Amino acid sequence: MRLLVTGGAGFIGSNFVRYWVEHHPDDTVVAFDVLTYAGNRPNLADVEDRIAFVQGDIGDLEGVTATLAAHDIDVIVNFAAESHNSLAILDPTRFFQTNVMGTQALAEAARRHGVARFHHISTCEVYGDLPLDSDEVFTEETPYRPRTPYNASKAGGDHAVRAYVETYGLPATITNCCNNYGPYQFPEKVIPLFTSRALDDQALPVYQSSQNKREWLHVDDHCRAIDLVLHHGTVGETYNVGSGVEASVEQIADAVLAATGRPLSLKETVPDRPSHDRRYLLDSTKIRTQLGWEPTVEFEQGLADTVAWYADHRSWWEPLRDRAPVVEGAWEGPAAGGARP
User: What letter does residue 169 receive in the DSSP assignment?
Assistant: First the structure.
């Protein structure tokens, strides 16, 4: 394969690039990233000699088309997205520009070039949210009911990809994944945010709705799922990728404080952000039964290993912390926001 990995310098994208060159060393990988505040070229430092890197915007149709031709790309894996819920509330336009119009431009470039596969990474959040006290789950047939600008922009991107499948025959697949965690995650997200603050004995901003839950999956297991979809998935299909493991934002805070040896008194309650979703949980039966995927990283160990990685890589996250465009913990001011669980 000759893969173009968009968003390749971001959290999941860089982990996927690293995964792919390790597991498929004969393939060609081109990492493509516009390098916004959360795109970080050093994420790829250990594989730079085995990949090509192109700085570019997925919304630049001509630029993407030229890149596909120059590298003779036959597979696109699209991780490129604005993804921080709090920032989306403050600046929704950039989310719709990248996640909807950018995805459409990328799909158009893929159509013109004639790729063999276009794989689009989406999120569980497009389905809306679930009550905390229910047994409901999201299946691939659940109607989309996004509640935030980020969720809605990702839903719009999904619809664009499906439209290209139906109208133009684009050979595309989609995965909707639950919350990822692991190394190289930008420190605005809740696990690295809590970890970096705990390591510096700073308060952990816990939303007032501290029992709101998320489903958690280690990024390595997500990469394995995409690999299976690319090799064995059916064109036109969507696959939910979930661990079945839920944890509330308060449970995450408690676990991080325990792993770093810090007191529970560092937890600080902050106001909820607007439209704070209560709970997401995916039914991942389809990918498990049809493609044989299952998660391999147990959550407690994976979280402990992730906290340890941040403790050992202070030189990686310290320069990034001040690049985050959202001030966590308050919604009164123009730069206010809250930690995304």
Answer: -
